[in-house]
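Troubleshooting: if your tokenizer reports a length mismatch, compare your output against this known-good record of 257 residues.
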Amino acid sequence: MKLDIPALVGSLFAFFGLWWLGAWWGADPSVLPSPIEVWRIFQGEIASGELQHHFVATLLRVLVAFSLAMGIGCVLGIAMGASARVNRWLSTWVILLQNIPALVVIVLCYLWIGLNEVAAITAVALNKTAMVAVSLREGMHALDPKVREMAQVFSMKPLKQLRFVVLPQLWPYIAASIRNGLAIIWKIVLVVEFLGRSNGIGFQIHLYFQLFETAYVIAYALSFVSFMLLLEVTLIRGIETHATRWRRATGTSGKPA
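Known-good structure output:
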């Protein structure tokens, strides 16, 4: 999908316009500070180095947890989609992981493993792995059987089938998992940091929540939201375009079934 720059800019202006209007109407900075006030705080936190320190801590947790969830989830999803027996054995586990609240997983990991980075990363990765596995399993079920039969006729080896037949058709599902995964994982990371870490965006939000500093909470939240928006309009859209280029070339739909 091609990025619509005018629509993006217009949406951002509308968002900040409504924000400014709400701050002006409420006239209470302790409830809703103006964008200018939040920007001043944002600049001050950058100047002190605090924002960069906590931002990097959160980003590293997101990257590690995301990599684990995507790697394990893709392997499980492809295996479940390719084998009915594997799907029967693992589907119950996947359903359980999908329906256990993220907060429960986080608390249990902290209780069992301790208040450390291993527990934090494990809790976040567990919450996303099942979602990736389900998405890839459905992608496997949606593979074009004619293409698979053609590969068998030409006696393609399993690894070549995976590279040239399976993965190109799964790319839209992988791209969707990447987009949803990043959006969900960073929110769960904030909860993990809120409950049991000594640094990160979530820790700072918890700190300023206790101090009733609304402007600081918004400043730290928007720092990572802005980064995720930048990631969306650059990297993720590029991955999505790459994932669906073969479908556009053949005139088929680029959306997962």
